[in-house]
Amino acid sequence: MSQKNLIVAFGGMSPEHEVSVLTALQAVAALEESHYTLIPLYITKSGNWLTGKSLLKLESFKDLKKVASESIPCTFSHNDLGQPVLLELRQGWFSKEVAHPIHALLTAFHGSDGENGSFQGICELYHIPYTGSGVLASALGMDKLRAKEFCKNHDLPVVDGIGFHESEWVDSRDSLIAKAESIRYPLIVKPVHLGSSIGVEMVEHREDLIRSVETAFRYDARLLIEKAVKPLTEVNCSVLGSSDKNRASVCERPIGKEELLSFTDKYMRDEAGSKGMASADRVIPADIDDDLTRAIQETSRTIFSLLGCSGLARLDFLVNSNTGDYYFNEINTIPGSFSFYLWKESGIEYPQLLEELIKLALDRHSQKNGRIQSYETNLLSEKAVKGIKGLKTSK
């Protein structure tokens, strides 16, 4: 099979930057024996686009400033054949720009501009096949408040909560506190647009609520305050496929030192810093009864389809350990480590999982481009006869 260029895009202007690097390089290691030529697209914390072979090695990222200075600036473009390319922007009189035709792009961003649909929109503009969900589903998935409102409107279980903007907190703090306290403590405070449990805290009193809100606003301009589920069991499930045809993985029960799983629990325990989510403590399959497992799997597929997701996502649920009631918590349209550990237990090895993600991206791209992309008309030639002035009276 001939070599094809696979762009691995990661990094980004996000608090989850380092986690994205881990996810991307795990995927690179899994694809080492594949027929793809792997080309990195690393976006720095300041938003610069870089490429270069050294970016495919984890040790290169020990010094982020150094790796940025030693890499090659790049951008998307099109070659003379109209193909999308990753263009190396080399400097110097005798340097020649190098263009890499793009077969497909593996999105490995977490949070902010890489996962919220904005980068996906760039790929759409350049007609680049990319893995994961499209613009709308990515944006909905990143917005915890909108995703929960959407699910609630479709009679899917979510916990009670309120969402608000920083300006509302400044103008109407006492009113928002009263609304939050009407839900009753304990409460969970979380940023609307972040993942990896960054900025998330459980609070029991008003003083802690105010402090936690002020802290969370350091990460996001919109927050969500929700009723805490106690006693809590967290259960996650991954879905793979398209919005009209997909399947669910086995479920997992993550284990944290505290009842609420933290960033440290997910990435910093033992050797998790080198392995991403794959080494976080977890029980797979989740030690919950079969009826609850099936209910969460089916709900996961329903939400995946309703949001119009594609590729792969992980859906997180909160379960009341006493009653067995479960609630949709959030969807991760680009989950850490691509949730390969869930699919391995479901019978799909990591390289095979990535191949399926790429195939789904190519299929979606092909279906989209199979539609009519333009409408043949002589409108401009007719308008040109009248000139610009003539257009003022034409509507």
Automatic annotation (TrEMBL):
One of its GO terms (biological process) is regulation of cell shape. SUPFAM superfamilies: Glutathione synthetase ATP-binding domain-like (SSF56059), PreATP-grasp domain (SSF52440). Its cofactor is Mn(2+); Mg(2+). Pathway: Cell wall biogenesis; peptidoglycan biosynthesis. It catalyses: 2 D-alanine + ATP = D-alanyl-D-alanine + ADP + phosphate + H(+). Keywords: ATP-binding, Cell shape, Cell wall biogenesis/degradation, Cytoplasm, Ligase, Magnesium, Manganese, Metal-binding, Nucleotide-binding, Peptidoglycan synthesis. It holds the Pfam family Dala_Dala_lig_N. Coiled coil: none annotated. The active site is at E16, S196, S337. Binds 2 magnesium or manganese ions per subunit. Residues 148-359 form the ATP-grasp domain. Mg(2+) 1 binds at D316, E330. PROSITE patterns: ATP_GRASP, DALA_DALA_LIGASE_1, DALA_DALA_LIGASE_2. Its EC number is 6.3.2.4. Mg(2+) 2 binds at E330, N332. It is found in: Cytoplasm. Cell wall formation. This is D-alanine--D-alanine ligase. It comes from Rhodohalobacter mucosus. The lineage of its organism: Bacteria, Pseudomonadati, Balneolota, Balneolia, Balneolales. The gene is ddl.
